[in-house]
């Protein structure tokens, strides 16, 4: 008799959880994790292009050693910071963003250095790498926007009635957005 009651309770719980949005919350949480992986993927693509860019610049501007080393070190730091999609805390995202901003800053300094070398700017390999980096920066913006969209959809869903009643009890917590760094609304100052 107990076994029969247990089977009925398990079946009822399964029906209740699937009809109350549990499965949808799981799917949406997975979308957030998947989209975060895409964000990391495009940042990795950028990091993978940098050694080729540095080597190309080194051939023309080898005496700009400090700038080249700065780019290599920033790349190393940026690729060492990984964020687990299940732990998208504001601190983890800020640490990831800070490392990526350091790499962006180093790349900007490199591009300013390149301005002094007209032969390098005309080099086809350099122009191809620069175009790939520009395309990757656009991809980064797109993937970050998509991440924030799926995060917003997930956060809104778990906070709506009736999910708000049990989403926290079932382990579904609000996810954090990928936010622009403070002062990103101000244009950068480039000095030659």
Automatic annotation (TrEMBL):
Q: How does it sit in the membrane?
A: Single-pass membrane protein
Q: Does the keyword NADP apply?
A: no
Quote the Pfam families the UniProt record gives. LemA
Annotated PROSITE patterns: PROKAR_LIPOPROTEIN
Cellular-component GO terms for this entry: membrane
Q: Which domain of life is it from?
A: Bacteria
Q: Where in the cell is it found?
A: Membrane
Task: Read off the InterPro entries from this record.
Answer: LemA-like_dom_sf, MamQ_LemA
* Cited Gene3D superfamilies: LemA-like domain
Keywords of the record, alphabetical order, are:
Membrane, Transmembrane, Transmembrane helix
Family to which the UniProt record says this protein belongs = Belongs to the LemA family.
Q: What is this protein called?
A: LemA protein
| The organism of origin for this protein | Mariniphaga anaerophila
């Amino acid at each position: 008799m107990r076994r029969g009651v247990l089977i009925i309770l398990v079946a009822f719980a399964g029906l209740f959880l699937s009809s109350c949005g549990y499965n949808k919350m799981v799917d949406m949480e997975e979308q957030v994790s998947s989209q975060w992986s895409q964000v990391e993927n495009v940042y990795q693509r950028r990091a993978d292009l940098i050694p080729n860019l540095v080597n190309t610049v080194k051939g023309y501007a080898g005496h700009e050693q400090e700038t080249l080393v700065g780019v290599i070190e920033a790349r190393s730091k940026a690729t060492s910071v990984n964020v687990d999609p299940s732990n998208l805390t504001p601190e983890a995202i800020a640490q990831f963003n800070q490392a990526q901003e350091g790499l962006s800053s180093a790349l900007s300094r490199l591009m300013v250095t390149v301005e002094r070398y007209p032969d390098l700017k005309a080099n086809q390999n350099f122009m191809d790498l620069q175009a790939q980096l520009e395309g990757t920066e656009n991809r980064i913006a797109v993937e970050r926007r998509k991440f924030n969209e799926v995060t917003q959809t997930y956060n809104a869903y778990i906070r709506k009635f009736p999910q708000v009643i049990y989403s926290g009890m079932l382990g579904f917590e609000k996810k954090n957005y990928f936010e622009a760094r403070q002062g990103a609304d101000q244009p950068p100052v480039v000095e030659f």
